[in-house]
Amino acid sequence: MPLRLRRYTFRNLVLLLVTVLFLLVSYRHTTEEPIQYPKFAAGDLELANFRLKTLNARGLEIRRSIHDLHQAVLGLGISPSTTSSTAAAVARLSPGDGVVTAGGAGVLPGGGGPAGGDSDKPHGIESVRAINPEKSLEAVHDHGAAKAAAVPAGVKSPIVDVLVGMEHVPSMQELDPVKIVTGGRSGVSMVIGIPTVHRSKESYLITTIKSVLQNLALYDKSDLLIVIMVADTDITKVEAIFNQVTSEFPDEVKSGLVDMIAPSPLLYPDFDKLANSDNTFGDTRPRYRWRTKQVYDFAFIMMYARSRGLYYLQLEDDIQARPDFASLIINRAKKDNEWVLLEFSYLGFIGKLFHCDELSDFVHFLLANARFKPVDWLLDDWFYVRYCHPEKDYKDCRVRKKVRRVLYQPSLFQHIGHFSSLDGKIQKLQDRSFKQNVRTPTHVNPPALVSGTVEHFQSYSLESSYLQTNTYWGKQQHAGDRLQFTFNSPTALKRILIASGNPDHPGDVFLKTVKLQYLTAADNNKEPTKDHWQDLCPLNAQNAFDCQLDASISELKAVSILFTEDSKQWITIPAIFFHGR
Q1: 88 vs 19, 68, 93, 108, 457, CA distance in Å?
Q2: Which of 65, 278, 407, 514 is the most exposed place for a label (fewest CB within 10 A)?
Q3: Is pLDDT above 60 for 127?
Q4: How far apart are CA 108 and CA 106, in angstroms?
């Protein structure tokens, strides 16, 4: 081999050995002295950025760091099912790609993961935000859950927690009542809501509360809550009404039967900004403000009541109640579960009964549409939205709504206000089906077998009138027909009241020849003859039997109504009252 060639080969070998030694030293340095990452707390925003920048600068280490980055992402609280896509994304990164994003389903927004589109496409890389490992991603991204989680421990949640229609409110916490008097009663069968405001001419509030309280049975008072909402923004007027109610009804307030609340002025938006030619329906600005404010008033009292009972009854502050109305309402409500609204007066928003668990849905609807229509119109719209098919006719809609929205007759409440809460408005509406002359302070009839030979119309049976769940409506009568009440055991009575007639059918009353009779326990015949029956009091001028029984009539076996002649005229009996001794 020529000398020159040998020298060239030797030089190459030396270079090769030096290169190998250099590589061995580099390999040893690499394996024995791994990259020292700074210590960051789990979830720190800088952690992923720092590691990714290091990886971009030292491409030889990228594969070895994928595992570390995978563990870091796990530390951010992201489920294991999503970290595989993160690792895959990091493996495909090149310098200049930016920083990792850990947010939302699929981890990477803008095209990453299942929620962002095709998982085979490159993932968008934007920013890192800390996620509490103790919270699920669903809780973090759900606005409602985030709002709830933001309430500090020990702070009570606000009464109103809806957002639609409440954009003018800085915080739902600020909608707690500015003044409240409560005994903390809840879990009752029925909550009765009475919104009120200061009236410049005549107030009917105390008269209304008296009528409600006086016509409650004793056993009902322990299972009800009456909420008086004073919807004035003037705190002086609020204080005056609170003091008046507390002074007039101290026992009811102290016992927890009556609550009083006053909403925050922040409840109400700027009504002048809401009004425009499309939603006023020709109303003046004062009338528009009045009707729109009323929607917010009703929404607030409903939200207060929704968690305090089974049913919610809306009244107004200028009504008269029928005796024993609460028992009648609760009995009817429990009769079936198909109804969504029971109406115990057809006027305005008087006597409207809701399930408490329906109130949140209705309040959302009210607040979302408050600027468009009055509250009673919105009630109609709510039913249309829920139950009417847009491709079917009005008849189909009416049938669907009739099952869910049921009118009870006769009315249990009468409107008595003459001057409206809207200054200058006169309100003379009256409910013709309300029976004011029926006074039954404690209406619990003794157990009895109810029977009769007069056919009744549809569900207007004699038994329903006796139980005070409906009015009796009988068809034509024949001479000798009877409506009979046979007591389960001999019963001593001191008063009997049986009323007839209906304002919508003024001729459906007892004829003067009709008799009210009784059978004593001594007449223990299985089939009593007409000779065993004895007459009680005659019919009075109001077409009713109202008898005060003498003490000599001690124990009764039965009472009956005898028709002595034929009549084609139907008969209605709205009230039957047997008052025991």
Answers
A1: 35, 13, 9, 12, 77
A2: 278
A3: no
A4: 6
CB 517 within 8 A of CB 559: yes
In the three-class reduction of DSSP (H, G, I as helix; E, B as strand; rest coil), residue 185 is classed as coil
Q: Which of 184, 222, 228, 232 is nearest to 208 (CA)?
A: 228
Describe the strand order of the beta sheet including 575-580 as a list of residue ranges. Answer: 544-548, 493-499, 575-580
Q: From residue 349, give the alpha-carbon distance in Å to each of 179, 315, 375, 501, 509.
A: 25, 7, 8, 26, 30
Tokens 């496409």 correspond to what residue? Answer: 121
Please list, in sequence order, all residues whose beta carbon lies within 8 angstroms of the beta carbon of residue 67, skipping any fewer than 6 positions away. none
Select from 55, 50, 107, 52 the least CA-distant residue to 77.
Answer: 107
Report residue 187 as tokens. Answer: 């879990």
Q: Is the pLDDT of residue 120 over 50?
A: no
Exposed e or buried b per residue across 472-488, where buried means at least 16 C-beta atoms within 10 angstroms of its C-beta: bbbeebeeebbbbbebe
Percentage of the chain beyond pLDDT 90 is 32
Of 163, 564, 119, nearest in space to 368 by CA:
163
The alpha carbon of residue 262 and the mean position of all alpha carbons in its chain are separated, in whole angstroms, by 19
Give tens-digit pLDDT for 452-503: 999 998 878 898 888 877 789 999 999 999 999 999 888 888 889 998 987 6
In sequence order, which residues have a C-beta less than 8 Å from that of residue 478 and are 6 or more positions away?
453, 563, 566
What single-letter amino acid sits at 95?
P
